[in-house]
Amino acid sequence: METSVVLKKLNSWKVFLLKKQKELPYICTWKIVIERMNIDTQNSLCFDLSETQQMVASSAKDFAEQYIRPYVMEWDEKQEFPVHIMRKAGEYGFMGILVPEMYGGSGLGYHEYVEIITEISKVDPSMGLSIAAHNSLCTNHILEFGDQDQKQRWLPKLASGEWIGAWGLTEHNTGSDAGGMNSTAVREGDSWILNGTKNFITHGKSGDLAVVIMRTGEKGDNHGMTAFAIERGTPGFSSGKKENKLGMRASETAELVFDQCRISDDNRLGEVGNGFIQSLKILDGGRISIGALSLGIAKGAYQASLAYSKERVQFGKPISHFQGISFKLAEMATEIEAAELLVHKASFEKNAGRKMTKLSAMCKMYASEMCVRVANESVQIHGGYGYSKEFPVEKFYRDSKLCTIGEGTTEIQKVVIARNILK
Fold this sequence. Notes:
- This protein is an alpha+beta fold.
- It is built from 13 helices and 10 strands.
- The strands form 3 sheets. Strands 1-4-5-8 form a 4-stranded mixed β-sheet. Strands 2-3-7-6 form a 4-stranded antiparallel β-sheet, with helices on one face. The chain has a two-stranded antiparallel ribbon with strand order 9-10.
- A hairpin with a 2-residue loop joins strand 2 (about 185-190) and strand 3 (about 190-200).
- The longest helix is centred in the last third of the chain and has 37 residues, at about 275-310.
- It is globular.
- The termini are far apart.
- The model is unreliable at about 15-45 (pLDDT under 50).
């Protein structure tokens, strides 16, 4: 379906929902959607995708099949980040998924966002990762904490895909311990002087705009860090080493280097000292992104394994007929369903504007570990062919591991969950 048709359908849904919310202010959006679908709410609980979500998922699937699948292994082998595909994603409305239409975005919610990232990641997790990072980190940080002038200045370019976004918190000496960062921003009148290096940054070389968290106070002080947006081409702002990675090789990862980089105070996002607090809120949504990415990897690996198990014949019958294989498939399918429910529950809470730190950590932790297990079993089901680049599961296997590390390791997610349940 053409993107313009999809967006028109989405707009009609928005009008309908807004009218309903005015008439029935205490009825949640999901219940309205169920009414629209003529479902008996007294005798059933519906987990089906809404018409909107189905259209969005179909559009993302078509995009991935047409523009990504033919080149997946070529990009992987060359470690090539296909910037032109990011521009094309902008044409489909996938670069400003959560951005309101007034800033040139699609104005969708987290359920639709999850469907888009999942569908793209089923084909190539690298592209799913890049589109997710652009949306949920850089773009969303400006959407959440930028002032009106900053939103009008940057969001239209990011949402259209004209610009690609990067987001920098991590440094060489600070992974999980972000409060110990060394990169600094020192105020001089109406300007700030930035010095330091951020590493493991998605789009560190190709990004046109980077949102970075810099230390403006004492090291270790959670209120001693501030967020800034810096445009590519600013004197003193450059890229450093590009990482040679195990997986996600088509998603560019590199250093951001600041050497006496002078920027205006107009580039500061939010209040001085609130940068770290802002980043924690951004990561709550970002962990839904990793959940969606993990779902895509798991579904892609599972579907490839299911098809292979029906085609591969040993001892006179398809290997899917053997309990050893069928039980693996059963466990994989069950874990994927469980993870999907958890990801969408976190999305529901995010859409509702409620605090969902615990849920986002849960969905990220469970979905990421699940996708590693599924990818591992997929290689096992394929046997020797699973170790060959002629089949897709070896790439899913390599790509999956990042999900347990990026945007907070599994161990950090457990810390977050434990803190919340032990309050």
